[in-house]
UniProtKB/TrEMBL annotation:
Residues 1-46 form the Inositol polyphosphate-related phosphatase domain. One of its GO terms (molecular function) is phosphatidylinositol-4,5-bisphosphate 5-phosphatase activity. This is Inositol polyphosphate-related phosphatase domain-containing protein. SUPFAM superfamilies: DNase I-like (SSF56219). GO terms for biological process: phosphatidylinositol dephosphorylation. Signal peptide: none annotated. One of its GO terms (cellular component) is plasma membrane. It comes from Bracon brevicornis.
């Protein structure tokens, strides 16, 4: 079985969509959820502030 990135959240701000506006994504929280037992892949979540 191939390894996977089950503990990462990939994100990108696409600045080309917003003319004359600088967007910044700030990660406020990152959390894993080890109590999820349906799979060997444990889910993660994150909270971002977009400015």
């Amino acid at each position: 079985r191939r390894p996977s990135w089950t503990d990462r959240i990939l994100y990108r701000v696409n600045a080309d969509v917003y003319e004359d506006t600088k967007l910044v994504a700030i990660q406020k929280n990152y959390e894993d959820h080890p109590r999820y037992v349906q799979s060997d892949h444990k889910p993660v979540s994150a909270e971002f502030q977009i400015k």
